[in-house]
């Protein structure tokens, strides 16, 4: 299955993982499904793991993802970490993050799960967002 997600209510976190083969539609559908779960509310942290997706979005796809993210009533208000290992995917994820930031949506790209979790921990410590 190319998309899976786990909701961790006690951590206010949703982990969404993508595995090859995926495409734009699978990514949008997977994120939408996870974000629309009844227990997921504004302030949840989203960890999006694309390390095994085998997919690098092009510029047009990135813009589609940005529009989806910043216009979604839940995702827009959730700190989001994207985890990837490939350098090109890290660059594309950073582009996505910067474009989301222009719309005041908090998104960061990381090369490891530990780095993403550390960012989430820093957010909690610094109270940069409210749950």
Provide a brief overview of the structure.
The protein is about 40% helix and about 20% strand. The protein contains four helices and five strands. The protein has helices at about 25-35, 60-70, 85-100, 115-125, and strands at about 5-10, 15-20, 45-50, 80-85, 105-110.
Can you give a write-up of this model?
By secondary structure, the chain is an alpha/beta fold. Helices cover 41% and strands 22% of the residues. The protein has helices at 24-35, 59-71, 87-101, 113-126, and strands spanning 3-8, 13-19, 45-52, 80-83, 107-110. Helix 2 crosses helix 3 (87-101).
- How big a fraction of the residues is strand? 15-25%
Biggest sheet, spatial arrangement of strands? 1-2-3-4-5
Radius of gyration: 13 Å
- Percent in helix: 40-55%
Q: Major beta sheet, specifics? A: 5 strands, mixed
Overall mean pLDDT score?
A: 94
List the defining traits of the structure above.
5 strands, alpha/beta, 5-stranded mixed β-sheet, globular
Show the helix and strand layout.
Elements: E1 3-8, E2 13-19, H1 24-35, E3 45-52, H2 59-71, E4 80-83, H3 87-101, E5 107-110, H4 113-126
Parallel strand pairs: 2-3, 3-4, 4-5
Antiparallel strand pairs: 1-2
Helix pairs in contact: 2-3
């Amino acid at each position: 299955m190319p998309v899976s997600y786990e909701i961790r209510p006690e951590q206010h976190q949703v982990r969404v993982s993508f595995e090859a083969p995926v495409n734009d539609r699978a990514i949008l559908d997977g994120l939408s499904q996870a974000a629309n779960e009844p227990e997921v509310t504004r302030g949840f942290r989203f960890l999006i793991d694309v390390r095994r997706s085998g997919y690098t979005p092009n510029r047009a796809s990135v813009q589609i993802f940005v529009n989806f993210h910043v216009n979604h009533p839940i995702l827009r208000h959730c700190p989001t970490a994207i985890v990837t290992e490939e350098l090109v995917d890290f660059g594309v994820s950073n582009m996505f993050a910067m474009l989301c930031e222009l719309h005041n949506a908090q998104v960061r790209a990381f090369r490891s799960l530990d780095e993403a979790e550390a960012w989430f921990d820093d957010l909690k410590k610094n109270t940069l967002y409210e749950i």
